Model the fold of this input.
Amino acid sequence: MPQIELPPAPRVLHEYTVRRDRLGRWVVSEAHGLGAGVFFTCKAACRFALREADNDASRVHLEEAEQVPSA
Done:
């Protein structure tokens, strides 16, 4: 049986947003809801987002923090 060669799948470039939620956690979310994570530090969240974005910093966006309630 002859093999059928399929064209390569188009590469999807994902956009990630890093932000702080009301509880003080750092949240990473993908623009289309395809990936997410919750982290204790901004550094860990940014490292995750950069890794997921193939180290393309132009696809990682840091939003200003929401007000964290004082304890």
